[in-house]
């Protein structure tokens, strides 16, 4: 991305899109009973509450009545239908992991099979987005957590903690290409989860080879443990590679969420919050609900002078439902330089 003079002024930035992640598949209801919804009615109401607080994207997972993360697509269909009815304009983004929570205490925290994850393209009603991970990676989500972050929670159990410490993300090239093709065919936008510049570069190659032909919507996932660490050097390196037409959301975990989001807000990027990412206020004196986290970001963004995107603005910025016919159109719309022609090295200029 290019930051010309005035780029940090709010009048030269898009309204802020806030993604809410309130369903928290890695936690159990007893970890935060006031804010982890279990019944279907509670889960639908949580989406409504997040929307009313200012979030226009809902990162969606589903729970069973026993409190465990659901792996049944029928439950996803039920929740999507309920959210569509309650807040029809909210962007529904299904977490592509489905649920990586262990089935039993001490079991491995792992993602579902490739074939099951491909079935997300068959959800009915269909979501607006499905998150797509690129490149198999370690996903040690607890690597930069402190002991106090998990004190009094299910994660304080060494077996549970180790299950998440040893987790990996399966996202090999063949799976990713097939998954993107199926989502494209269903009219569902791929929301790419990028863990570092390497995964972004793989997404760019997928675009340049014509596998993905749509708007470039990404999360920079700065949670450590095989993914970028949450610091300004990694963020700047990622943003430097990102083309100007992309929609980039910053994402981190625990008490890094707020400072990373503040950097993103100041730079004109978009943000994500919720108890899937963080349970605490910055002094770790109390747990913060997802709605409280959204309200905090709304207040801070307005103090920056940056307004919050309406649902319609968020849809327009993210180009929900838009796909392109050719590689060349995709590159141009996203702000990439065109593919090189013949024996040239490639020119860093846009096609006209």
UniProtKB/TrEMBL annotation:
Name used for this protein in its record: 3-keto-5-aminohexanoate cleavage enzyme
Organism phylogeny: Bacteria, Pseudomonadati, Pseudomonadota, Betaproteobacteria, Burkholderiales
Molecular function (Gene Ontology), one example: 3-keto-5-aminohexanoate cleavage activity
Listed InterPro entries: Aldolase_TIM, BKACE
Keywords: Metal-binding, Transferase, Zinc
Pfam families cross-referenced by the UniProt entry: BKACE (PF05853)
Signal peptide residue numbers: none
UniProt source species: Caballeronia insecticola
Cofactor: Zn(2+)
Highest taxon, organism lineage: Bacteria
């Amino acid at each position: 991305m290019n930051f010309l003079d005035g780029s940090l002024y709010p009048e030269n930035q898009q309204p802020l899109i806030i993604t809410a992640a309130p369903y928290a598949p890695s936690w159990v209801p007893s970890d935060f009973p006031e804010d982890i919804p279990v019944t279907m009615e509670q889960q639908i109401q949580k989406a409504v509450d997040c929307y009313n607080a200012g979030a226009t994207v809902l990162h969606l997972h589903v729970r069973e009545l026993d409190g465990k993360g659901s792996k049944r697509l029928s439950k996803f269909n039920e929740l999507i239908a309920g959210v569509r009815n309650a807040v029809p304009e909210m962007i529904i983004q299904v977490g592509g992991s489905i649920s990586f929570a262990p089935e039993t205490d001490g079991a491995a925290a792992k993602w579902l099979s490739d074939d099951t994850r491909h079935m997300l393209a068959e959800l009915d009603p269909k979501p607006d987005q499905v998150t797509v991970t690129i490149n198999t990676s370690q996903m040690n989500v607890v690597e930069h957590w402190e002991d106090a972050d998990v004190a009094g929670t299910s994660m304080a159990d060494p077996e549970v903690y180790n299950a998440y410490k040893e987790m990996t993300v399966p996202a090999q090239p063949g799976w990713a290409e097939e998954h993107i093709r199926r989502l494209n065919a269903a009219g569902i936008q791929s929301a790419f989860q990028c863990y570092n510049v390497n995964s972004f570069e793989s997404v760019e190659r997928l675009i340049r080879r014509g596998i993905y032909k749509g708007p470039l919507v990404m999360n920079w996932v700065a949670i450590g443990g095989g993914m970028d660490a949450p610091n300004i050097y990694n963020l700047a390196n990622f943003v430097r590679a990102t083309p100007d037409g992309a929609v980039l959301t910053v994402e981190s975990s625990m008490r890094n969420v707020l400072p990373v989001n503040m950097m993103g807000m100041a730079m004109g990027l978009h943000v994500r919050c919720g108890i899937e990412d963080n349970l605490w206020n910055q002094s770790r004196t109390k747990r913060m609900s997802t709605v409280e986290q959204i309200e905090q970001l709304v207040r801070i963004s307005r103090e920056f002078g940056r307004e919050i995107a309406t649902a319609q603005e968020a849809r327009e910025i993210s180009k929900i439902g838009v796909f392109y016919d050719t590689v060349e159109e995709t590159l141009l719309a996203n702000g990439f330089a065109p593919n090189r022609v013949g024996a040239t090295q490639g020119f860093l200029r846009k096609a006209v």
